[in-house]
Structures are given as C-alpha cells and as structure tokens.
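Hey, resending since the last one bounced:
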Amino acid sequence: MKISIGNDHAGTNYKFEIINYLNTQGITVKNYGTNNTDSSDYPDFTHPVAQDVSESKADFGIIICGTGNGANMTANKYKGIRSALCWTKELAVLAREHNNANILSIPARFTSLPQAIEIVKVFLNSKFEGGRHKRRIDKIDIKF
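The structure tokens again:
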C-alpha cells in the first residue's frame, strides 16, 4: 500500500507519529508535509497529496492541519477525490464504508495523538460497502 501524507505547521508532530505507525505496518509513505512548526500554508502540502491519489500514484492520502477543514476543502477540489474530515474513529469507518473516502483529513487541534493514530488505523482497515452507497458517490462528481 502507498500513502501520500501532507501537513501544515499544526500537524507536523502528528505526521511524524503517523508515519512511524505506517512504517511499522510495511506501508510506503510519500511525505509532502512541512517538517517543522514554522507557519505554513496547508494548500501547499495538500495539493500534491490530492494529485497523487487522483492520479493513482497513492492508494490513499492523509492530510493534517489545525482544523482539518482547509486541507479537506483543498483536496476535494480534485476530480475523483473524496476527502473526509474525521475527528473520531467512528466517522473514519463510515467515511470509508459509506463514502469510499480516499483521503483522510485530521484536525490536529481537535484530536489527541492517540486518537489520530486510531483514526488512521480504522480508516485504512475499513472497506467500502458498495451497493446503495456506490449509487450515491457516483453522483458526487460534477459532469459538464
């Protein structure tokens, strides 16, 4: 499995811990995030993650910023991206099972580090249910 990960200054520590967890699982990680806590702009680190997932260069993406909202909004501009803002593991499971989310957006200022790791675990281990949910996600992309 290949994961692209990106973060702004609010998510740097979370990113390093998530990468450590992913490495223990044998998952290949491409790091696009800032590696320090100096003020930075979330779109700069979200665009390459969304592009990788959109172009099938990564199986999933993980983006981390203070609220998760800005990064999530940025990622969802890409065709075929279904980025989900998740601050609980229950939301992460449903994002995969019902929405076939392919990018996980984590709000670093609203989750603890142990919560964030659990959210990543369940996101990556949950499967899309298909059925009525496929019909619904097929209606998401604008066709014009």
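Residues 2-137 form a domain with the Ribose 5-phosphate Isomerase B; Chain: A, fold (CATH 3.40.1400.10).

Sorry for the duplicate.
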